[in-house]
Amino acid sequence: MSGCIFCKIANKVIPTDIVYEDQHLVVFKDLKPAAPIHLLLIPKKHYSSLLDLGEEDFELAGRLNVAALRVARNLGFAENGFRLVCNCGWDGGQVVNHLHYHLLAGRELQWPPG
Ligand code: AMP
Ligand code: ZN
Predict the structure, then answer these.
(1) Which atom of ligand 1 is the closest one to the Cα of 95?
(2) How far apart are CA 64 and CA 93, in angstroms?
(3) According to the model, what pLDDT value does residue 71 have?
(4) Is 37 in the pocket of ligand 1 (CB under 6 A)?
(5) Residues near ion ligand 2 (Cβ under 5 Å)
(6) Is the pLDDT of residue 114 over 90?
(7) Known catalytic residue at 102
(8) Could you tell me the CATH number of the domain that includes residue 64?
(9) pLDDT in tens, 34-43
(10) Confidence of residue 58 (pLDDT cuts 50, 70, 90)
(11) Which residues contact 105 (CB under 8 A, 6 or more apart)?
């Protein structure tokens, strides 16, 4: 989708610190990390938010979760723990309108979020 910053990242129009990539998704470092490890997982295909996923997207949704685990294990923070979150819509705090999951780790995270 033209004008979408995460589509530009997925298409390598904007160079980014990519830590994992496959046919379906990209994982890269958040520009303003909220934890020692703060990664974003995005599907290469544009979805505005989680609300855009339908029955036909079961596989993609699973892939995003499995990719998060793979990255957590590969980067060595799986055992200590991490948080995988998706901000959806205004009340959810979503700012970038391309579906993404935050993968946060590297410190003891607080709950509940603000
Ligand atoms: P959200 O509030 O869930 O929409 O989060 C959007 C996230 O994208 C924020 O944590 C931003 O720091 C991050 N972000 C925005 N632009 C970029 C970029 N060009 N490269 C990496 N992270 C970005
Ligand atoms: Zn997009």
Answers:
(1) 4
(2) 20
(3) 98
(4) no
(5) 1, 4, 6-7, 46, 98
(6) no
(7) no
(8) 3.30.428.10
(9) 999 999 999 9
(10) very high
(11) 35, 36, 37, 72, 77, 80, 81, 82, 83
